[in-house]
Amino acid sequence: MTAVAATLRQSWIITLRDLKHWQREPWTPVFSVLFSVMLVLMFGYLLGGAITIPGGGDYLPYLLPGIFALSMMFGIEATMTAVANDTKKGVTDRFRALPISGAAVPLGRAGADLLNSAVELTVLLVGGVLIGWRATGGVGGTLLAVALLLWFRFAMLVIGVFLGLTIRGEGGVTAVQVLVWPAGFLSNAFVAPESMPAWLGLVAEWSPLSATAAACRQLFGNPTGASGGFVADNAVLLAVLWPAVLVAVFTPLTARAYRRLAR
């Protein structure tokens, strides 16, 4: 068996271990889905009537792709917390004592979270259809949008594993959890950047979350809220490149953090 095949097999075993934890304690993934549904109800029905989409279109079809992307980003907290808890409780130390690849542990964690995210995204998509949202961009566009959402999620998982390995204290974990909120809202998930002050809109427009949300709106055939420009015209390309950059940056940092943990 090659080293790569052995690492993948070991990662799958660790993935199954993490999935069994959710099977016994399903509240974290269930709460994550319910939280995303709450955001849809709150913004779509309580506040949506006061929000105008530049270029026209109903707010709910604009909102749902943003919620899909936001739910993929907010999962970084659960990954970071799980990895930090494993490190704190000595579980990671026990893994290090086993004759397994150093990459198997973070890959296994990411694999479990990615599978959980796929289920969560499926529930949100079905829920969106039930409340009237429709994807009119065709089967190919819909599948590509789902793939981009999971690709963005994978990038968030890599960052979450890195943060979990480097941030040990409760205060640090809480600080990251709090900072995720402004990072998520500083995007086009809820309102179009064109409706913001110029400098703030520029920051929101170039957010990785905004790139994924904008690409999904285009591929789903939903209102984009953008009148044009480089970001709007290349949303799909940016939705591919932004996660790729994040994965390329944080993968070696995660490997380094795991090696330093082993010293």
Structural write-up:
InterPro entries: ABC2_TM, ABC2_TM_bact-type, ABC_2_transport, Nod_factor_ABC_transporter. Keywords: Antibiotic resistance, Cell membrane, Membrane, Transmembrane, Transmembrane helix, Transport. It is found in: Cell membrane; Membrane. By secondary structure, the protein is mainly α. The protein has one domain (3-261). It is built from 12 helices and no strands. The longest helix is centred in the middle third of the chain and has 29 residues, at 138-166. The two termini are 28 Å apart.
Task: Offer a quick outline of the entry.
By secondary structure, the protein is mostly helical. It has one domain (3-261).
List keywords for this structure.
single chain; 263 residues; mainly alpha; 0% strand; elongated; membrane; ABC2_TM_bact-type; Transport permease protein; transmembrane
Q: Secondary structure elements and their pairing?
A:
Blueprint: H1 3-24, H2 27-47, H3 59-74, H4 76-89, H5 91-96, H6 104-130, H7 138-166, H8 170-185, H9 198-205, H10 208-220, H11 230-233, H12 235-261
Helix pairs in contact: 1-6, 2-3, 2-6, 3-6, 3-7, 3-10, 4-7, 4-8, 6-7, 7-10, 7-12, 10-12
Main location: membrane
Membrane topology: Multi-pass membrane protein
Transmembrane segments: 30-53, 59-84, 114-133, 139-165, 172-192, 235-255
